[in-house]
Amino acid sequence: MILSGPSGVGKDAILKCMKSKIQDYFFATTVTTRIRRPNETGNVDYTFVNKQAFSDMIESDELLEWANVYGNFYGVPKTPIRNALKNGEDVIIKVDIQGAATIKQLIPDAVLIFLAPPDVDVLLSRLTNRKSETPEDIDIRIQTAHKELREASKFDHVVVNHHRKLDQAVSEIEQIIEMQRCLQNSELDTNID
């Protein structure tokens, strides 16, 4: 499962809520060169590395996908995902829009979930309230969000993260995962015959 959407839409909040439940999900931890925010925990929210360490990971072909986003590098390590899939776990990867497209090309069976804001004003409010970007950075992220919102139709599912209804968005994502499990199991049953 690939979770994507504009900056500030609530991807991290969704994943934090999902992680708090006892589920059989593997949450891929993204590697990044950006500075850790005060509310983040290293190797839980992200694995924070310097640019040289990130460059070494690229050189060693350790990343499923990687990108430069807003001047920082982000990447998804291959090995933990491969191990989780071998163990039969549902893998959830959080990436930006271009990362979702890259992974879909590499893994056509990947299910893309686009997390959308109810409207751009709510997104602007969320970006402003988290107080981790300058006004100029927020403007760039809002401009990018307009472009990214047009990409939603390329995703398998769109879930709207309404204001103060995080549990509803989490429930919708969990229903998508359960539906995919059922589809996969029915395909396995068909293959047995």
Feature tags:
single chain, 193 residues, alpha/beta, Rossmann fold, 7 helices, globular, disordered C terminus
What layout of secondary structure does this protein have?
Elements (H helix, E strand, L loop, with lengths): L1 E3 L6 H9 L5 E3 L3 E2 L14 E2 L2 H9 L3 E7 L2 E6 H9 L3 E5 L2 H10 L5 E5 L3 H10 L5 H15 L7 E4 L5 H27 L1
Parallel strand pairs: 1-7, 1-8, 2-7, 3-4, 8-9
Antiparallel strand pairs: 3-6, 5-6
Helix pairs in contact: 1-7, 5-6
What summary fits the major beta sheet? 5 strands, parallel
Measured by DSSP, the beta-strand proportion falls in 15-25%
Portion of residues in helices?
Answer: 40-55%
As an assembly, this protein is single chain
Instruction: Give the ordered list of helices and strands.
Output: EHEEEHEEHEHEHHEH
Structure characterization notes:
This protein has 193 residues and is an alpha/beta fold. The chain has a single domain, classed as P-loop containing nucleotide triphosphate hydrolases (Rossmann fold, 3-Layer(aba) Sandwich). 46% of the residues lie in helices and 19% in strands. It is built from 7 helices and 9 strands; from the N terminus they run βαβββαββαβαβααβα. Helix 1 packs across helix 7 (166-192) and helix 5 packs antiparallel against helix 6.
